[in-house]
From TrEMBL:
Residues 7-81 form the Protein CotJB domain. It comes from uncultured Anaerotruncus sp. It comes from the Bacteria. Pfam families: CotJB. This is CotJB protein. InterPro entries: CotJB_dom, Spore_coat_assembly_CotJB.
Length: 83
């Protein structure tokens, strides 16, 4: 059984894939309401999963770094690395 970290990371990655593909479709079909709704659904799912991952395991990318007194992006294993 996968741990929660792996599950959350996979959820983010799946949503990322879906969002990129849907974005490409919407670039050529901007008035497709069903596709836009699909994009919004997975965008929200990605936000939720990324927020949960970041709160529990640290930032997924440099934009998620909170800051502080030092650059803490390098403190934890990279999101794609196993612990």
């Amino acid at each position: 059984m996968e741990d929660n970290r792996e599950m959350l990371l996979k959820r983010v990655q799946i949503c990322d894939f879906i969002l990129v593909e849907t974005n490409e479709y919407l670039d050529t079909h901007p008035n497709d309401q069903a596709a836009l709704d699909y994009f919004k659904k997975y965008n929200e799912m990605r936000r939720t999963a990324a927020k949960e991952f970041t709160e529990k395991y640290g930032p997924l990318n440099m934009w998620d770094v909170e800051g502080g007194n030092r650059w803490n992006w390098v403190d934890d294993p990279w999101p794609w690395e196993k612990q």
